[in-house]
Amino acid sequence: MPRPRFRLPGRFLRTRPVVLGIVVLVVLAIVGVVALRTTGSDTAAVRTEDVVRDVPEGPGSSATVQLDATVYLPDVAGPAPAVILAHGFGGDKRSVDGQARDLASRGLVVLAYSARGFGASTGRIGLNDPDREVADARALIDYLATRPEVQLDSPGDPRVGVAGGSYGGALALMAAGTDPRIDADAASITWNDLNQSLFPNYSAAAGTGTPTTTPAPSENGDAGVLKRGWAGIFFGAGALPTGESTVTATAAGAGAGGPGGGAAAPSIDPTDPAAACGRFALNVCAAYATSAVGGQPSAETTELLRQRSPSSVADAITAPTLLVQGQRDTLFGLEQADATARKIAAAGGSVQVRWFDGGHDAGGTSPAADAAVADFLVDHLIGDSHPADPSFAYTLAGDPTDQGDRARDLVAARYPGLSGTGTGTGTGTGTGTEPTERTEFTLSSATGTPTQIIARPPGASPSAVSSFPGVGSLSGLPGGASDALGPLLAGDLPGQTASFVTEPLDSSYTITGSTAVDVTVGPTSASSGTVLFAKLYDVSDDGRRTLPSGLVSAVRVAPAATPTTVTVSLPAVAHQVAAGHRIEVAFATTDQGYAVPLEPAAVSVALADGRLALPTVPAESTTSSFPIVPVVGIAALAALVAALAAGATVRARRRTAADVDPDLVDVPLVITDLAKNYANGFRAVDGVSFRVEPGQVLGLLGPNGAGKTTTLRMLMGLITPSAGSIRVFGHAVTPGAPVLSRLGSFVEGSGFLPHLSGRDNLELYWRATGRPAEDAHLEEALDIADLGRSVDRKVKSYSQGMRQRLAIAQAMLGLPDLMVLDEPTNGLDPPQIRTMRDVLIRYARTGRTVLVSSHLLAEVEQTCTHVVVMNKGVVVSAGPVEDLIGASGPVEFRVDRPAEAADILRGLDGVGEVLVDDETGAVKAQLGVTDPAVAVRALVTAGVEVSTASRSTRLEDVFLELVHDDTASGDRPEPTTAGARS
Question: 980: pLDDT confidence band, cut at 50, 70 and 90?
């Protein structure tokens, strides 16, 4: 069978060198940008080896669990330090492949593995059980000590670091707290206390002021409020049965990785009650199930979560530690990293803290956060051991409307901690050794009454919305989008919120950390106590309320017969409040993300002293988060494309200059088989052809959608035809063609500077063309437009008619040989239309040509010498106005004997219908091809006196007859020529 052959269109063949050149340069530019982004890392040189390690199922157990792992080997000579890289919840070893390759390209051996219950690893999820998942990490360190590629500090003691995000971050911290062989530890967006993360209570006993350790844990021992939305995602991901897909990194906090594979946990009989636990260990499943139903953790759940939290071992971490925490994270807030940092520092360890504009509500970690982890591990594993850098980095998200700057990174010399009360041990880490700088603001009740009464409706429905777990903070979207969308999608409900506000700020203020307020609530007799949700709002001068990162502090106050005063820690944030804004502290009774008590209740809320001490950490701006590399790459790409486009334009103009039909150099316009198709398949113009001769005023007619304006835009080179040709004085028209300088146009409305005079507008327009001033013929154009002395008045004082005439004068500048006008009489009154008609007729009398598109058929009939009628993209009739009218309609005869005249006319050959108007006595006859003079001669010969013989048809009648039937249908009309109608 012969191979089919395809031929590319000639137009493509002519432009193929330019297209190919653009494609090549685009590819090169993209490659260059990628090369810049890799900053010299050569991940291609990294070798990988898949391994499976058997580890004990539990202490003293003879059963084993298989851990699926990949070892990434760098291209270096001799042994190298190693890193164990753990993934986030819901991921597996593939989730951290990119991070592992980057670390290996920097000279580190990396072991990435799937934790038990995830990916291809067997076993059940124990939520970082110290006897299982944490023991697995120690077993992997034992394995690394046997690899010849790994550098050893001593036999059995490899030089090794641990790192991970979210679930993997907690594992890294717990491994570092239980294995002294670990030499560096980097944990991202993870928890300190899983109890406080899933069942938070941000309150302390009355009179103690700001909590002295960290704002995270409750000091009065009250049970917290279940973070229902996040807990459901966190536990629901692990409850999926074997082979089901897991949640994505964004929802489950897997960091920068993607979704994990299905786990290979043992198959469970669906009739077994344990089937609902999926891949979770049964004790973990049971603990969550009881807590989720009741909304409060049992004692067993509290103990289980405590054992699986870095808080249980943080004081034993001696390796230099980096804590990277997200500022947009409603799952594990900034206070979680603060609690870990304080405990490490208090025990004498060295720790560095970094906040970044990301977190579980922003897709996990970011490239900048992962790069900070890589830099830290390389710094502390390759070379001599040294304490962690005590500096503190955070990000301020810019807001173009309020904060006046784009997002920027800031660095302070030391990390003072969130509460910053100076409770550290003076280890030199800067963690808690100095108090945080604070400024006091006064809060007053938004209602004017010190005590506000708010209600919790039955069933806690409807509930306030602050954020959506896994989707992110609605008020914490980047830049101005947060302020624009946050108030629309999230907010408090009337009657459920008590608000206290400051006066407008005299100057901007940057809040960095957490603050606390003393609030008196109650009384309440409900067994669940009083549950409130504290929020810190930024309120603009127009009333827009921004909840930074959608963060909320849940508070549960024990039941009491009298009001209870507690110290409430507000969410930890890094946020700049603009000058003129207010700061609002609000307390709500409901929040859709939490397990709120369902019983209806009324709660009184009052501030104890109305003082709000907001923390700030003075810091210096370092590198802006402005994406320099992509912008440089885009700019380079744009420059290349612009250069190619300029070259293509030059070549196109050269081709156009040579594309001249010598037989048409004296013809103003010839359009041949013109067509225009759009991407959606719509064909706006289909095979349009007509010719305009010198001295003609041609009217382009057609109903809306006929394709008139599209045709004119192609004529002026504004859009490119799909097929056909346009020649102006023999030259082919293309965008920017030199011959267009002989064409003046006014299409789709005029645009003038209102504060300038008409003359100034015209002179400014002509200077923009770059042509000599003497070529403008300004006075001649003004004389034809007949603006008189009004041309020296400011345009803003012009009537609509004067503006239209000024637009005509602008089109006449340079006295173009062809003038194209689209609806020039639009919006004019009858006297102005008459003036416009005279202007066009006078201009054509100079020997030039005018093309007019209009809906005013009576004016076209009086102004134009020729017409082209379009309908649905095709030409349906064309020719002189007189011929078009003359070839249509009956001839009306005024005679003395109407009945006899009618009989005589019916007897003539070629005459069609003949009617007598009983009221006027006129005889109307369809003469067809019969000359009216022949009919008059026949009547007079027969003795009938003829007073007048005339056609009564107007252009409007002909036009409506041409387009009426087709307008009601969807078919293309058939074209006709002047003098014959279909």
Answer: very low
Q: What is the pLDDT of residue 583?
A: 96
Tokens of 906: 């019916």
In this prediction, residues 635-663 reach a mean pLDDT of 64
Q: Cis check for the bond before 462: say yes or no (omega within 30 of 0).
A: yes
What is the model's pLDDT at position 118?
A: 94
Instruction: Return the HEC string of 100-123.
Output: HHHHHHCCCEEEEECCCCCCCCCC
Cβ-contact 251, 264 below 8 angstroms: no
What is the distance between the alpha carbons of residues 960 and 858, in angstroms, rounded to a whole number?
13
Cis peptide leading into residue 523 (ω within 30°): yes
Token digits of residue 490:
């999230």
Beta bridge partners of 555: 532
- In this predicted model, what pLDDT tens digit does every residue of 432-450 receive, in sequence order? 446 778 899 999 999 989 9
- For residue 193, give Cα distances in angstroms to 32, 333, 443, 495: 45, 11, 32, 34
Angle, CA 488 vertex, CA 484 and CA 493 arms, to 5°: 140
Measured CA to CA in angstroms, residue 354 lies from 234, 413, 697 at distances of 25, 12, 75
- The pLDDT value given to residue 736: 75
**With 60 as the cut, is the pLDDT of residue 630 above it?**
no
| pLDDT higher than threshold 60 for residue 584 | yes
Beta partners for residue 185, in sequence order: 162, 321
* Backbone Cα Rg of the chain: 41
Dist CA 100 CA 85 (whole Å): 7
The lowest-confidence range among 116-125, 628-637, 658-667 is 628-637
DSSP calls for 62-109: S-EEEEEEEEEE-S-SS-B-EEEEEPPTT--GGGGHHHHHHHHHTT-E
Distance CA 801, CA 789 (A): 15
Task: Name the nearest CA neighbour of 440 among 381, 380, 503, 371.
Answer: 503
